[in-house]
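Q: Structure tokens for this one, please.
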Amino acid sequence: QVQLAESGGGLVQAGGSLRLSCAASGTIFSITVMGWYRQAPGKERELVAVATSGGITNYAGSVKGRFTISRDNAKNTVDLQMNSLKPEDTAVYYCNADVRPSPLPNEFRYWGQGTQVTVSS
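A: Here is the predicted structure, written as tokens:
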């Protein structure tokens, strides 16, 4: 079993910055994809930024140029540096990881409990 521990959420003024961190622990052989999703009030959960174990990244168009995802495969961690924050970024942010527990061809998706990010105007 795998647990995702998130930290770094909070309240910030528009134009400010926050850094979210996520650490995976448990039975892990490898993590194929790791990153962040978010869900704003009244909206569906959406991809924010993800990274593969090979270093390929994918960003939502609304955050590209403002957010940066970074991943440490050896430590099973992923960070999201959020700059120039806007009120529209207000949401619950969820860490996500697709985990292989062994060399066998089995993969499981895990989610963090979520951390609140609130951007005031």
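A few notes: The first strand starts at residue 2 and ends at 7. The chain has a mean pLDDT of 97.
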